[in-house]
Inverse folding.
């Protein structure tokens, strides 16, 4: 921190008139030592968040927030940045330099650098308080995720595949418990709810997961959310925005919360209709198979799997033996090689933070040029973030010499028993490919300035490459080569691949609604102007008003919604996964309308206009250069098997788009 302050003081203390080089470029060049240390700190926070580290985190959170505010609190630095931004020298700069100046300027303005002295001080105080609240929120969720449900007898395991039983035994052993344990993590819970015959245990596991951060105890997050919402609303007012949502989306592709809501509502109606159809089929099956009960959220995955078996002659137990983690990882690497020319080989002598982590060197296949390192961390454990996450430890740049990428993929998969392969469910396999798509975005980066590199793009464009890469999992090219049975080594039979393709749109209503309920509720929270807000009551009322199907749970309830309340990263922004889905479905059709998923010409356009350019290009221009036109929602509706629905102005977004600058 002290070294970074010296670097900034050298900029503001310069007697020379502000120029691109002595102000914006110098600012871009500052903080390198701090950033290197902070990446290690952040990795520890995400992947090794032990009680000892949590004490450090609580102490440092407000100090870091204050430190990050120092540049925008400095009127002298802001005056220099503004002078460069308003300079008549723009014509002499490269397009990337012009973009860097604009992005730097906007970051200062959005942080409140243009406020008066009292406004800047209040903004800094709010940021420090928010940093403390974000840390408390995250640590509370981690505490609740350390819980588990213990299964005490063989009868409790009814319906569970053998691999899941062994993994549950391993989980119990790692905790010093007898019997079997279901970890309170997304993958373990989803698998249990899909296969467990015992309805009472499904309910117990579901409630334990659903209530994270909402137990009314020392780890309850409701009061924290109330405070976060009030502080965010005050910040928005300070900056002249109607709400926090309007502030957050001003710099996005969608621009306004109204347009984000329009997109979500466009898909909501057909998704609800699909859920109603699926629930009717599941309820009929449930009525025939035992005592009559009204389906509840802990029943949905279980009976959906049975309906899929009846309708398509396909069940997860038939597919999962072919979805070996290591083989699918090989498949991802193969696709990246075929499409983008990357080669992945195990790296030696690279230190790692946990024995589960492996490291791969990435090279350009044609030239042998070193591209970067990929850290691969697949298994859940105490103190690790319970979700998919990709972190760039070091971003590519050419600013002060060639710098290559260091990027980490992390997932929360259940660790298998010793000597057994890790077998993934289909949704977990999609998560694996999704996170690798983020890594490819970072590894493909080819820009000069680190602030514009890799995935450091406009907020709702960042999920596009990862959502797009999910599509390659289901291709015959990947399944035929890498979906190998863990015992026989034989590839997935063509008849099973065909079943998967026929069932591709099955249960899409469920997955869309469990996402949309979380996205719509959190957007509504950030559009609410009345304070204070009771999160639990607001959530219940919002679900009732939108007519959410009771049988479908929210993917994330507010008390454990880390995307939104452990930082500002996705606040008023969870909709962006749907936006990315729209872009990805539209983009993948460019491949299927060409020579197929491995079309080299389409891949070359994707790399040239999307993956390699970072934020050096306006995202609308980037997408249009790749696709030849603006995106529309039609491909997404076809992909999900939803009934055709009139578009609502989301076609041809470029017609109305204001400049991102």
């Amino acid at each position: 921190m002290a070294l970074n302050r010296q670097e900034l003081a050298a900029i503001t203390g310069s007697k020379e008139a502000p120029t691109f080089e002595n102000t914006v470029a110098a600012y871009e060049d500052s903080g390198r030592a701090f950033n290197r240390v902070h990446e290690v700190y952040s990795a520890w926070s995400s992947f090794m968040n032990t009680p000892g580290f949590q004490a450090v985190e609580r102490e440092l959170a407000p100090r870091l927030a204050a430190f990050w505010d120092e540049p925008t609190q400095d009127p002298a630095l802001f005056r220099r940045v503004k002078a460069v931004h308003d300079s008549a020298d723009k014509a002499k700069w490269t397009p990337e330099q012009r973009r860097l100046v604009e992005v730097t300027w906007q970051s200062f303005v959005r942080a409140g650098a243009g406020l008066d002295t009292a406004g800047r001080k209040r903004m800094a105080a709010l940021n420090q308080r928010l940093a403390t609240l974000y840390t408390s929120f995250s640590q509370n969720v981690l505490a609740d995720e350390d819980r588990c449900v213990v299964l005490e007898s063989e009868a409790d395991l009814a319906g569970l595949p053998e691999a899941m039983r062994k993994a549950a035994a391993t989980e119990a052993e790692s905790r010093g418990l007898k019997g079997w344990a279901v970890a309170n993590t997304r993958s373990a819970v989803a698998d249990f709810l899909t296969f467990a015959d015992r309805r009472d245990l499904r309910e117990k596991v579901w409630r334990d997961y659903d209530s994270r951060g909402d137990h009314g105890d020392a780890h309850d997050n409701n009061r924290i959310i109330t405070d976060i919402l009030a502080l965010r609303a005050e910040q928005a007012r300070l900056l002249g925005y109607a709400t926090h949502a309007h502030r957050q989306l001003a710099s996005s592709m969608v621009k306004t919360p109204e347009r984000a809501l329009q997109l979500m509502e466009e898909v909501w109606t057909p998704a609800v209709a699909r859920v109603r159809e699926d629930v009717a089929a599941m309820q009929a099956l449930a009525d025939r198979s035992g005592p009559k009960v009204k389906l509840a959220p802990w029943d949905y995955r279980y009976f959906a799997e049975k309906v899929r078996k009846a309708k398509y002659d396909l069940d997860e137990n038939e597919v999962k033996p072919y979805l070996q983690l290591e083989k699918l990882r090989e498949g991802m690497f193969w696709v990246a090689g075929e499409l983008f020319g990357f080669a992945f080989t195990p790296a030696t002598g690279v230190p790692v933070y946990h024995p589960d982590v492996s490291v791969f060197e990435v090279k350009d296949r044609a030239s042998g040029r070193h591209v970067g390192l990929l850290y691969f961390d697949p298994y859940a454990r105490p103190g690790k973030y319970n979700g998919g996450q990709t972190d760039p430890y070091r971003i590519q740049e050419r600013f002060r010499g060639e710098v290559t990428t260091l990027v980490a993929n992390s997932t929360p998969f259940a660790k298998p028993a010793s000597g057994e392969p890790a077998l993934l469910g289909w949704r977990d396999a999609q998560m694996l490919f999704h996170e690798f798509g983020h890594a490819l975005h970072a590894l493909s980066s080819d820009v000069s300035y680190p602030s514009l590199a890799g995935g450091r793009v406009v907020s709702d464009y960042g999920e596009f490459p990862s959502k797009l890469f999910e599509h390659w999992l289901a291709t015959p090219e990947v399944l035929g080569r890498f979906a190998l049975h863990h015992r026989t080594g034989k590839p997935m039979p063509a008849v099973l691949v065909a079943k998967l393709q026929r069932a591709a749109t099955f249960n899409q209503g469920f997955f869309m609604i469990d996402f949309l309920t979380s996205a719509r509720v959190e957007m509504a929270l950030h559009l609410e102007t009345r304070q204070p807000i009771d999160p639990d009551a607001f959530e219940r009322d919002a679900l009732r008003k939108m007519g959410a199907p009771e049988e479908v749970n929210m993917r994330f309830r507010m008390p454990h919604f880390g995307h939104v309340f452990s930082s500002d990263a996705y606040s008023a922004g969870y909709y962006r996964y749907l936006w990315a889905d729209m872009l990805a479905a539209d983009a993948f059709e460019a491949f299927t309308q060409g020579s197929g998923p491995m079309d080299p010409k389409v891949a070359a356009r994707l790399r040239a206009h999307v993956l390699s350019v970072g934020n050096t290009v306006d995202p609308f221009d980037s997408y249009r250069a790749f696709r030849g036109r603006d995106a529309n929602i039609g491909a997404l509706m076809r992909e999900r098997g939803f009934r055709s629905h009139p578009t609502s102005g989301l076609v041809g977004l470029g017609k109305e788009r204001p400049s991102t600058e």
The first strand starts at residue 148 and ends at 151. The chain is about 55% helix and 5% strand.
